């Protein structure tokens, strides 16, 4: 992300993203999690069965709370930290739970703040959610895509397949880094015009083939030596990613590479903190998405027919990179 005042910009974005941790704590308070876990060490599955909750969702929430320092997790079992037991369980004399629950109520009233100020301007365009999302991905990627592409050695590949490539931020960086290369960008039909416009603006239309399709339903275009899954796998459950990895293998020439850019979690999926919180974002917004550990990716890629993967980058952000090759 480019800016003449990056610290100010990052500070603003941190404030905007701050609702995520707040929502995790408010949900835990509404569910009375800290009282339920006081003096106990239970698995997510046990707690979910006891309370009638969704087991996968419960685990994602508990992992996020662990990453925030509110719980501990050992051998798959969770318990309160001493501080959480003292201040967030209902029966502690030092509890602040009533105040947190009060704030949970304010969450709902604050959500109507825009309407309290007044109606949107009459000439304000209707929100195009697809365009807004694709634009947001470009904003997040435009200042760092060149670093990501440099880390995956673009000079070794001549034909990139950018799966779910949005408007082409990473495709552009790849083609700039390797002027003799070509690329295929694959995304939903409604995204194609956005990608076509950006490629035309960049003067790269003659080096990019843009193919419309749904990565969950359609085969991927073949004949490539590099397949990039940039911020894609967190949208899917494990079974969906296995199918996607197999499609990527079919789209690659023998010896070709798949590169995954995403959060790379610890084996217990409680760190890095950003990844644990992002899993909650996927829980809220998708049917089965979450973040993955290296061990999980190793198993999925092996089952999909790739050679053992290696980590290219591991910096605790969504810019972590994992690479695996299709056998010759």
Order of helices and strands: HHHEHHEEHHHHHEHEHEEHEEHEHEE
Arithmetic mean pLDDT:
94
Percentage beta strand: 15-25%
Low-confidence stretches: none
Helix content: 40-55%
What is the fold named in CATH at topology level of the largest domain? Answer: Rossmann fold
Give the domain tally. Answer: 2
Q: Tell me the span between the first and last alpha carbons.
A: 38 Å
CATH architecture of the largest domain: 3-Layer(aba) Sandwich
Helical segment count: 15
CATH superfamily of the largest domain: Vaccinia Virus protein VP39
Q: What is the alpha-carbon Rg in Å? A: 22 Å
Largest sheet: 7 strands, mixed
The CATH class of the largest domain turns out to be: Alpha Beta
Model description:
This protein has 15 helices and 12 strands. With 328 residues, it is of the alpha/beta class. The protein is globular. The two termini are 38 Å apart.
How are the elements arranged and paired?
Blueprint: H1 6-17, H2 19-30, H3 33-37, E1 42-43, H4 44-51, H5 55-67, E2 71-74, E3 77-80, H6 82-88, H7 97-110, H8 113-117, H9 129-141, H10 145-151, E4 159-163, H11 169-177, E5 182-187, H12 192-202, E6 208-212, E7 224-230, H13 238-251, E8 252-261, E9 264-265, H14 273-285, E10 292-293, H15 294-303, E11 310-313, E12 321-325
Parallel strand pairs: 4-5, 4-7, 5-6, 7-8, 9-10
Antiparallel strand pairs: 1-3, 2-3, 8-12, 11-12
What are the defining features of this structure?
single chain, 328 residues, alpha/beta, Arc Repressor Mutant, subunit A, 2 domains, seven-stranded mixed sheet, 17% strand
Write a brief structural summary.
The protein has 328 residues and is an alpha/beta fold. The protein contains 15 helices and 12 strands.
């Amino acid at each position: 992300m480019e800016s003449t005042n990056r610290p100010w910009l990052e500070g603003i974005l941190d404030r905007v993203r701050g609702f995520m941790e707040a929502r995790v704590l408010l949900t835990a308070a509404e569910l009375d999690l800290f009282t339920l876990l006081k003096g106990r060490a239970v698995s997510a599955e046990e707690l979910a069965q006891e309370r009638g909750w969704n087991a996968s969702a419960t685990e994602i929430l508990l992992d996020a709370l662990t990453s925030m320092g509110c719980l501990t997790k050992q051998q798959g079992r969770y318990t309160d930290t001493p501080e959480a037991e003292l201040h967030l369980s209902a029966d502690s004399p030092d509890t602040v739970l009533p105040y947190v629950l009060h704030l949970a109520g304010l969450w709902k009233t604050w959500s109507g703040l825009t309407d309290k100020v007044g109606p949107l301007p009459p000439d304000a365009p209707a929100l195009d959610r697809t365009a807004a999302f694709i634009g947001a991905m470009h904003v997040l990627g435009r200042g760092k895509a060149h670093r990501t592409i440099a880390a995956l050695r673009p000079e070794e590949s001549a034909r990139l397949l950018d799966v779910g490539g949005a408007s082409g931020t990473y495709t552009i960086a790849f083609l700039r880094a390797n002027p003799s290369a070509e690329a295929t960008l694959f995304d939903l039909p409604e995204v194609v015009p956005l990608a076509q416009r950006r490629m035309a603006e960049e003067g790269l239309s003659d080096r990019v083939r843009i193919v419309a399709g749904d990565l969950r339903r359609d085969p991927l275009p073949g004949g490539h030596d590099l397949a990039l899954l940039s911020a894609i796998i967190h949208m899917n459950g494990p079974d969906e990613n296995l199918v996607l990895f197999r499609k990527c293998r079919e789209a690659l020439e023998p010896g070709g590479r798949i590169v995954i850019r995403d959060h790379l979690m610890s084996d217990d999926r409680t760190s890095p903190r950003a990844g644990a919180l992002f899993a909650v974002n996927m829980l809220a917004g998708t049917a089965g998405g979450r973040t993955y550990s290296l061990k999980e990716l190793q198993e999925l890629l092996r089952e999909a027919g790739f050679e053992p993967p290696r980590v290219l980058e591991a910096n605790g952000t969504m810019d972590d990179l994992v690479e695996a090759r299709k056998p010759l």
